[in-house]
Predict the structure.
Amino acid sequence: MHAPTATPDAARVGSDTIAALRLKLPHAVLDESWQTPTQATLTVKLDELPNVVSTLYHEHDGWLSVMAGNDERTINGNFALYYALSMEGAEKSFIVVRAEVPAATEEFPSVTPLVPAAVWHEREVRDMFGLTPVGLPDERRLVLPDDWPDGLHPLRKDSMDYRLRPEPTGDDETYQFKNDAKGETTVVPLGPLHITSDEPGHFRLFVDGEDIIDADYRMFYVHRGMEKVAETRMGYNEVTFLADRVCGICGYAHSVAYTTSIENALGIAVPARAQAIRSVLLETERLHSHLLNLGLACHFVGFDTGFMQFFRVREKTMTLAEMLTGSRKTYALNLIGGVRRDILGEQHVATLRLIGELREEVTRLVEMLLATPNLEGRVKGVGILDPGIAREYSPVGPTVRGSGHRRDTRVDHAFAGYGGVAMPVNVGDGCDVLSRTLVRVSEFFDSLSIIEQILADAPGGPVLTEDFTYKPHKFALGFTEAPRGEDIHWSMTGDNQKLFRWRCRASTYANWPVLRYMLRGNTVSDAPLIVASIDPCYSCTDRVTVVDVNKASSVTVPYKEMERYCRERTNSPLK
Amino acid sequence: MFKLLKEVLRTGEATVKYPFAPVEVAKDFRGKPEHQAANCIACAACTVACPANALGMETDAGAGTRTWSINYGRCVFCGRCEEVCPTDAIRLTPDFELAVAVKADLVRTAVFRLAPCVACGKPFAPEKEVAYVTALIEATAPSEADAERRRQLVATCPACKRAHDLGQIAGSRVVRAMETSR
Amino acid sequence: MTRHITETDVRAAGPFAKIDTPADVVRMKSALLKDIRRSAYVYRVDCGGCNACEIEIFASITPVFDAERFGIKVVASPRHADILLFTGAVTRSMRMPALRAYEAAPDPKIVVSYGACGVSGGIFHDLYCVWGGTDKILPVDVYIPGCPPTPAATVYGFAVALGLLGQKLKAETHVQAEGERVAVAHPSIPYNLRVLVEREARRMAGYRQGGDIAEKFLVMLEQPGLVPLTDRMSTFAAAETDPRVAEILARLGDVVTEAIA
């Protein structure tokens, strides 16, 4: 049987790629559907899943954005997997590869051996749905706590109430950390009570003397069960406020990604003024987040006065957010179909004034930072992210741009109010901590200009539409460029005025897997600096385990001690 | 180093005076939601819209009351309650001084009486809500007969309404026709 | 596998016993509060927060709010702490690390539960992987609500924790008075027209700004006088100096004109 070849449609971006794919793998594609003119979903044969994803990834400039599992047994009798690829070649679009996993076998061929970027997603789908990726070597849990009952998969529709709290069974962690070192190493555990900004995450560094041979980490100490509550307790609009709280630093980016996914799924025409306001707020969020990271960069190289100066100026971005949204953080400004506040004349003027002050003050602070002799010595050539490794794992944001890849969702897949905005994509080719820092500096100033441009061109009219109805089982992707890179959400509507499924992939989720490679070959004292350079978003707790490869000894160092060592570089805690 | 010193001198005193002097907050800052119980009809729109379940509504059929409550400790200050309130009974204020040593002090409640159903006499809906809707009907009904019919509906509990509807349907000619055709 | 939920599954914070504070520690604690006369050291424990609380704590100790003015200093180890600041709804994985941090801090210690999640679990209060707030696992002395609390709210909370300021909030219960009724707003304007105006204002500028603009507009409509309505509306819009507000007022005027026609 030959799958029918769809006629390429000029209005549909990505159709040439799909035609080429069908030519190469003529029997693979079973069905093709379009959610928006730039989003297609291809249902493929389960056996062909790795080939299809790999072909799109390697031959058509695809990057893996997210994979969502879905329990569709009540709809079609099967589970389904959706691998969403951001196509960044000649045709910039999203192609989602969908495969149904029979409920009888609960197994699918792992894509990870061909596309390593799929590793975390496949581990997560095993935790949450109990589907086994056959051929995935890593059999450890990713998201669920160590003492979570085996065989209880929270996102299966029939598994449990969203409030079920199994009794704790053990007080010890049983997670196996990985080490690829050939010889023996010393283990340096970092966390879970913390690393860069006090969020839990447990790091294990495998070292030989002072040199890091390998590193592994256990995240998801903050796993709360948001995706489950979104499809049970909450309605569509309530989830926008939940999405605000995926991340306290860039929550608005999540909120916009979520609302966009629903708006895309239902074909809602969001008023242009609402989209402009969303972009202004997204850039406001980037301003505070980048100043936070630049401040932390000062802190980790031992330049605390600089840290205080950046935080002083950062308050202006918080004032800006408070004036525009009523809150310094968690903007809570989205509804499906638009926004909840307008930018009136008075606020327009105040915004421009604050933008002017920020430009002037940050220019001076950046000059000061770059003139600090210590800086270059500490950050140049440190924490190299090889562009080849980056290509394999699909990291996002300043992390991937610092390694020469020109990826920016605002430009590749213009969303919200970015359509008509002139903006460059800032890339650096140093691939190191310095390169990533400089990318953020440039982006900060670009954000200021973007806000000015959008405010100048913002159309009038409404900021909200309620002219739509919810239809069941419609799905689509929604995406934003958060300060740390692309946030991407996949949502499917349900038949009870609630989501059927919400998959939310935060930008840092895409950046963690490459961190291991960035740490290798550096010294222990640079570890916090390197971790901070991906601007991680996880909530960390206080220990670093250092394992010495040669001495085969293990020392647990409090994280703050590691941080102190990073800053002062004297009195190694390993001696 | 010189640049740094210059910056420090230029900045001068950056710290606000709070708590010794009030701190400035934005005009539409989203702080403590203030409930004007006198203006509330206990319709529960806010409790449905609240994403955090900080607002609650509990009915005590025995006592014939419905108790509205807000837990400032769970509130996420999104302002959805203000957005959906039909009588402007709740509004977010600039007040942010909410810290307490006694957790019970974070909760505020308002007790409303339920009105009895005109048909069965059991309490079913807040008295103030029934009165408010009745006033709206009087203002909008096209005729006095229509207003009277609607007033009756508003004052009847759902169970009695259902029973009434069933009686009407059973008595209607259409149903009888359907039954004979079968 | 299907597992059905029971009441206890939902309600229980866990089988662990709550920690009791011995009487002598209580005495030491009140002595500490009354007579601190030195810096108070704060250790932060993130029990699964989203980082918004963490960043606002950062903002509280940096130049603009500078909590160090009051001797409040954030320290690197719970062993040095007088005050433990717990953020987050207490996720399943963070329960033990949080308890270990509590055990590590010397008595007497003040426990502050920070942010909506810490105080009560916040928006996450009943999820499967959280316990729903600090006081589900530990005795708490002071609660600082907010999502997240602003730096000013944080400074206020510290002041309450150290006994420098008293709390303002008190539990209150309103009981419906005899004859308590809610009047329909703007009775002289037809109800349906008022709803149309309010809806349009919200569509144009959201619930808060739009609501305030609609209110001004409705008050203007109600004013008695001999000037024709259309003239009044256009004079009102023309007097507005903010071009965006003028646009919204003009739109509300159109709504009224369409409704009358």
Observations:
- The domain at 22-180 of chain B is CATH 3.30.70.20 (Alpha-Beta Plaits).
